Amino acid sequence: MSLFTSPTKPSSAINVSDKTMNNAAKLLSLSDISYHIGQQRILSHIDINIAVNETVSLIGPNGAGKSTLVKLVLGLIEPTNGQITPHQKLQLGYVPQRFTVPPILPLRVCDLLAQADKNRLTAEQRQFIFENLSLTHLLSRQMLHLSGGETQRVLLARALLDKPNLLILDEPMQGLDPDTEVWLYQFIDELPEFLRCAMLVVSHDLHWVMKGSRRVICLNKHICCEGQPSELAISSEFQKLFGHHYEQPYVHQPHACEHHAPSEI
Ligand SMILES: Nc1ncnc2c1ncn2[C@@H]1O[C@H](COP(=O)(O)OP(=O)(O)OP(=O)(O)O)[C@@H](O)[C@H]1O
Q1: Of 3.10.28.20, 3.40.50.300, 3.10.20.30, 2.115.10.20, which CATH number belongs to 11-264?
Q2: Position with higher pLDDT, 256 vs 93
Q3: pLDDT tops 90 at residue 46
Q4: Residue 39 C-alpha to ligand 1 middle, in angstroms?
């Protein structure tokens, strides 16, 4: 029997908006979250609900607070205000933006992958991940010696082996060549049924973000706008931030959010 059943349904199949999502469908809620460092406001009044099996893309200019939001969700930092509530049995998986191994630390790929919980997947399902992420020949290699693309595949496998129900990917394609990027996006878009999970994907790739029907949240220290790509593309807030890049090869640049000066938030 093939492990690869039907591809993951797009989030539109769930079609749960923040306002109508009932508690049974909620996996994680962020309610009125603010985060300050001293006098500096990093995030203000963030409300986000993530539903079971929903994919949410998080976009925003450099310094918008995307990685800070991920750290809050991961529990690495505490919000200054507001409440983060995990619903159901939250099992987080995380693929970081960067992963550096100190040169003096011997860490083979198999050592890192062995840290995953062996009871979450069957041997056949684990094998599926190794084969489809082309890891088998890398298992005895040192993490330190892997290329960027190889490292990202190992980190994705490490997260998936724990069978998370919420997978957080923080700019997982950074530094990858275009072919590897397309290949990895396709892999996460078509996860097999046994790995199906909600995803929060921080991405600067507007062409991936705005394709399909995943919910998109546009952050610039606060939530500027959110919705389906078709709704977002015509919103004035999105146009102000990204309109001049969208439909063209996207080159990311810092940009102030004009409809709310940070001091007004
Ligand atoms: N520990 C810290 N001390 C001081 N400032 C911080 C700290 N962590 C984050 N910041 C500031 O908070 C803001 C948001 O940073 P964050 O890394 O969350 O942005 P980002 O949206 O992920 O940016 P990028 O797209 O460049 O990765 C930035 O101005 C950053 O300098």
Answers
A1: 3.40.50.300
A2: 93
A3: yes
A4: 14
Tell me the CA–centroid distance for residue 241 and ligand 1, in Å.
18
Task: Calculate helix-pair angle for 148-160, 123-132, nearest 10 degrees.
Answer: 160
Domain map (residue ranges) of the chain:
11-264
State the DSSP string of 92-106.
Answer: EEEE-S-----TT--
Condensed to tens digits (0 to 9), the pLDDT of residues 148-197 reads: 889 999 999 999 999 999 999 998 887 788 888 888 888 888 899 999 99
Which of 66, 98, 204, 255 has most ligand 1 atoms within 8 Å of CB, for mutation?
Answer: 66
Average confidence score pLDDT of the chain: 83
Q: What is the pLDDT of residues 222-234, one digit of tens each?
A: 999 999 988 888 8
Token pair of 135, please? 């890891």
Is the distance from CB of 85 to CB of 28 less than 8 angstroms? Answer: yes
Alpha helices in the chain (DSSP H): 66-74, 109-113, 123-132, 148-160, 178-189, 206-209, 229-233, 236-242
Distances (CA, A) of 68 to 14, 86, 162, 178: 27, 18, 23, 27
Closest CA to 201 of 27, 32, 90, 69: 69
**How far is ligand 1, taken at its centre, from the CA of residue 256, in Å?**
14
The structure's pTM equals: 0.82
ipTM: 0.97
